[in-house]
Amino acid sequence: MGLLHPAVRELLGEAPEIGEDLEELTVSLLQSLIRNACVNCGDGSCEEVTNIRTLAAFFDKYGIKYQVYHPPHRPNRPSLIAEYHGGTGIGPRVMLGPGHVDVVPANEKAWDVPPFEARLVGGEVWGRGSLDMLNTVAAQAVAFACLATSRLPMRGTLIFCAVSDEEAGGADGAGFLMNEPKLRDIFRADYCMTEFGGATLPDRYNRPSRTYYHVSGEKGTATINVVCKGRPGHGSLPKSCDNALVKAAEVVRCLANYWSPTIITPEWRNIMAASDAPWIVRTCLTSAWFAPAIIRLLLLLGHPLGSAAHASTRLTLSPNHLTGTHKSNVVPGTAVVEVDGRLMPGQDKAYLIRQLERALGRRRMASGDYEIRIRHFFPATTSPVDTPLWKAMEKAGRMLVDGTTFVNGLLTGATDSRFFRHHCGAIAYGTSLFQPELTLDKLMKSIHGDNERISVASLGISVQYFVLTILYMLGAAEEAVTFRKVKAGKDGSLGEKLYISLN
Ligand SMILES: [Zn+2]
């Protein structure tokens, strides 16, 4: 049984209406979400509605109202929003979420336990989504229910939001909500707490530290087609043709070998400052001049810092898909290299094209046989950390795990927070709080990997982290003791008056 931290108990004033054992509630909700197996294969067929129904049933149990929206052609892919106004509604809109309820497929044969049975083994919940990110969805739903049923006065609006389709780009989930003006207004938030933070940075001996990594921004994304043109013909007379596939192979090699200019961001400096790597390594890795050489050395040694430093300090261009002909006796006249581009903050389409042209070389581009087509582009998004939410998160972290410090980084991947940052100007962090033993390395290996699992203790810490952060952020924590003494009845009237006088 998970004990409620004294700070949480104190600020809530009285035992939560949903029960004291937030940890157990989180475990049981997480298990239900895993068992629903909302696997997103990227073809629009994922039935996230099952997990949304589970969340709705959980809120129904406590009389919490919510709304559900889905794209017109996709009733199987809804998103859910619930709000708690603990006062006048004046103040920031703070979102627990967006939390995606879909998961990536699992290779059942490679797992030690079945991935969709959500078994409790060795104090851990095993299952696909247990770290990405049904754990956070469950913890945030329980935290929301705990706070909304407490009827404490709050300055602002607390929101819970669960969405579909993150694992395939979010077009039917957060992308849909943020691209529709009416829905954007309903789902808009000033602050978001979403996935990927809350693990610790390991020290140089790979031991857990008390420095917690949180995400304050993420790289932009681009999908580019490099179309290579040749002259088709019969495979039996290869020298009579101009094989486009051979040209495409050269493009692949050029892109794979290309290093775009080094950009040292404030986020990367923060990570290096908090890192336990030797001084000389940290110094070199924060110098645009020396970084490429030291990164090459780290890559040569197979050190994990090498690939992280490479991707965190530049635009990356990864040629990941190649199409030519499907017949072995035909020399293709056209071949297409699909490239996954990841952009640093401030880099636009023009920069991307310049870098692609540099990678492919002037001579090649001038030949007219190569064409660059940008199919998709979404810029990098970042949030500042000198905000009340960051302060509240740090305070909650210190309260729950002794000696913690927080550090913010730029995620090299993409999450739904980009839609909220880009379309409604939200300050969004990838955040949670796990046991210190869960290091960033371990988290990275587990997410989308085999044997994904989370300890029950981490779930207990994370649910209280969300409760405490919201109480510090919206509940005027210093005054919380006063709140408790004169806490209003269920209609909230007295609390509201008191709330106004305090603010
Ligand atoms: Zn995720």
From TrEMBL:
Presence of keyword Cell inner membrane = no
The record, for Pfam families, names:
M20_dimer, Peptidase_M20
GO MF annotation list: hydrolase activity; metal ion binding
Enumerate the spans annotated as Peptidase M20 dimerisation domain: 217-361
InterPro entries xref list: Bact_exopeptidase_dim_dom (IPR036264), Peptidase_M20 (IPR002933), Peptidase_M20_dimer (IPR011650), Peptidase_M20A (IPR050072)
Output the Gene3D superfamilies linked to this UniProt entry: 1.10.150.900, 3.30.70.360, Zn peptidases
Transmembrane parts of this sequence: 454-475
Its cofactor is:
Zn(2+)
Keyword terms of this UniProt record: Hydrolase, Membrane, Metal-binding, Transmembrane, Transmembrane helix, Zinc
Q: Which family does it belong to?
A: Belongs to the peptidase M20A family.
Q: What is this protein called?
A: Peptidase
- Which organism's genome codes for this protein? Nannochloropsis gaditana
